[in-house]
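Record 1 of the preview.
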Amino acid sequence: MSSATGNGIPFVTALVLGAGSSRRLGQPKQLLEYRGRPLLQTAVDAAVGSCCQQVVVAIGGAAQEVRGAVDFDGCMVVENVAFTAGCSSSIVAALGAVDARSAGIVLCLGDQPGVSSEMVNRLVMEGSDSELAVCRYRDGRGHPFWFSRALFAALRGLRGDKAVWKLLESGLYQVLEVSFGQPIPSDVDTWDDYQQLLAGESLTGESLTGESLSRSA
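->
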């Protein structure tokens, strides 16, 4: 099968990791409220709204509750029963659902709401000719990542948490960096992370409100 669509854009799959056990948080982080919706919904919506032709979402921790709370319309949902074995187990579980036409996957974190559809699009447009591409932020490398189909076998061999970083830093592959002029988008692992995320939203809202009032004055 061809790995390109009729308009020349490569057929790409977004893989959203939403299977975490939320051990450090103490409750399912997928269901934390963010902008009036479950936290995982933000990542799912960003993937669905991007140029990716397929969206696969891996769930695991609190799977039944997540299915009931998150709108997965337009997505393929894969339940990873081995989610306690780390993020790599979700990648391995989801790879079997990737469309045969797909040139590769954009790996997105389900707890990183600062990643937008536009950011995913840039990574695809600038990185999909490479085997491996990452986002280069002001303070370092970060998700989402691009993995071409040529790396699927390597991805299937991953074990544990942070395994994709080990693959990235192995020196076995040339890594393309797509630059974004912003800090690495925050992810949520602990209650403090969540509170900081909400505090940042509050400050942004206050800043925007103040700017609007200033402009209207």
